[in-house]
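Incident log, structure service

09:12 report received: a user says their structure output differs between two submissions of the same chain.
09:20 pulled the input from the user's history:
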Amino acid sequence: MTWTRIPDDWADRVDNLELSPDAERFHVRALVVCNKAGSNGHLSKRSLAKLAAVFENVPDLLEELVEKFDWTANEDGTYEVPWDDQELAETVSQRKLNAAERQRRYRANLVAKQTDRLKTDSDASHNTVNTDDQHLNTSDASRDSSADQSGDATPSLPVPSLPKRDKGKGKREVAPLGTAPGGAASPAPEENSAPKKTKPKRDWEEEF
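09:34 re-ran on a clean worker, output below:
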């Protein structure tokens, strides 16, 4: 898209040259048409026909612009509009090419950044999976090693414990009668084999 430039002293120029309002409007429209066509101020017959559809007495306006505003009439019926205040078509085309190249580089950089981001995320995910696998392998190896060590180890014998003694309670076990302190039956006491002494009976005790 092109832009038509109107200098800030435009009103002074028009007033000093005593240009008619229709001629001023015709000139501005001719600038817009030539900028759009990229003709560097060359007003073709086709463009003139478009302007003639809007304005009346076009031949008088063209004559006024040639006399007062430095328009140039060509032999083939075309006109050259003063182009000092406007951009050349080559400048406009180069600006468009530069803008397209900037846009191309921007899109290429955007694609490259997205590709790098995806690659970074993929590498991070791959590293996480490898770390988890290493952790699982280490855990399995540690568990297997512990199981092997526990299976190969010689079992230790239990340490016998001493019987508890009741100390300081002041109680003794009393063996039942006829039982030795160790639990065995004690032998019955032997009868006294010595003869018993008998008293001699008296005469009065014999009657009874």
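09:41 both user submissions now match this output. Likely a transient worker issue. Closing.
09:42 reviewer note: The two ends are 173 Å apart (CA to CA). The first strand starts at residue 42 and ends at 43.
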